[in-house]
Design goal:
Layout (H helix, E strand, L loop, with lengths): L22 H21 L4 H4 L7 H21 L4 H24 L9 H23 L9 E2 L2 H23 L14 H23 L6 H20 L8 H23 L4 E2 L2
Antiparallel strand pairs: 1-2
Amino acid sequence: MAEPTVSRTRTGSARFGWAVVLPRPVYGTIAVAAGIAGVALLAFPGSTPRYFSWPLAPTPAAALVGGFYVASIFTFGAALTRDWAQTRALAVASLGLTIPTFIATLVHHAVFDLSRPQAIAWLIIFGTAPVVFVVMLAGIPSAKTDPARTLPGWARTVAAMLGVGFALGAAALWIDPSGSVAWLSFGPPPMTGRFLGAWAAFLCLLSSWIVLRPAAETRIAAVGLTAFGGGAAAAGLRTLGQLDQGPRRVVFILMAVAVMLVGAALAWTSHRPRVRD
């Protein structure tokens, strides 16, 4: 079946004409900055007080964030070759990451040493990023896609199940971050736990986008699930010795691999959507 196309015809004039130039530089900057931070976190997850914006601990949590940052290279990098209709998912999901992270930063401001440039950079990035994404979403008109071409029912069902799982994880990490030791393979302190909860919200929104949008708009979201699942699996293997020695360690890695495989299946399926009657 021929690959569905995305029409580049715009549905109106942009509210902020200059906003149309934002996606590629924003996504490119994220890919580069996240890549640098991700490599450092995966290579030296136990040394975050020396180079990160705040003492991100424990070691498995630092490696997990590093895996997510490395996944951002592939996800946001892939967005550089796509048009706005196919990459809006990243702007929506990034609001789910940046707004809760900024709130957590204000709540747990004591963990930040504002005499360090890394901490100042953190405040600037997470304070301004939500504004940038809102401007992009409000100011750039949506390109037309074919609403009749949808993912198969099984694909949307699986994506919905992932979305619910990530939503529950995000809520649990925000309500009681330290209590997550009961189901995670490590126990994060409050700021770390809520930051991981923000990442879970990011993944929840990517999954939800796949459920709700036409097939042509879901590929980057599916690529994101693939990359982030792989990043989490790599982080688990990197800090295998620091994870809980019980079955939760195995479950953590298996779930990460499952997300990666499901994301890959959804990405492949998005190239072969069904036509709704």
